[in-house]
C-alpha cells in the first residue's frame, strides 16, 4: 500500500514539473532574443533584424551603424562582434 502511494506521488510530481517546463518553454526563446537584440543595440547598432540563434547559443543579426549595414554576432558569453 505504501509503495503504491509513493509511486502515485512521484508520478504526480513528475507530471507537474513537466507541465511547468512546457509552459515556460514558449517564453524563453522570445526573452533570450529580446536580450540579444538589446545587447546589440547597447553597442550602438540600430535597426536590428533577421536575428537568429545557432546551436551553440550565439545570436547573429543584420544591423546598421552610421548608415552602413553590418552583420553582427552576439556570442553566448555576451560580447557583440562585427563580422
Can you walk me through this structure?
The protein has helices at residues 2-25, 28-42; strands at residues 46-53, 59-65, 68-74, 80-82. By secondary structure, the chain is an alpha+beta fold. The protein has one domain (2-82). The protein has a 4-stranded antiparallel beta sheet, with helices on one face. Strand 2 (59-65) and strand 3 form a beta hairpin. The radius of gyration is 21 Å and the shape is globular. 10% of the residues are buried. Residues 1-9 and 14-26 have low confidence and may be disordered.
Sum this structure up briefly.
By secondary structure, the protein is of the alpha+beta class. It has two helices and four strands. The protein has one domain (2-82).
Strand order of the largest sheet: 1-2-3-4
Rg over CA atoms, rounded to whole Å, is 21 Å
Structural class: alpha+beta
The total count of strands amounts to 4
Q: Biggest β-sheet: count, sense, barrel?
A: 4 strands, antiparallel
Helix content: 40-55%
Estimate nothing, just give the exact number of structural domains.
1
- Provide mean pLDDT, rounded: 74
Query: What is the count of helical runs?
Result: 2
In one word, what is the shape?
globular
Distance, first to last CA: 64 Å
Low-confidence stretches: 1-9, 14-26
Order of helices and strands: HHEEEE
Strand content: 25-35%
Reconstruct the topology from this structure.
Blueprint lengths: L1 H24 L2 H15 L3 E8 L5 E7 L2 E7 L5 E3 L1
Antiparallel strand pairs: 1-2, 2-3, 3-4
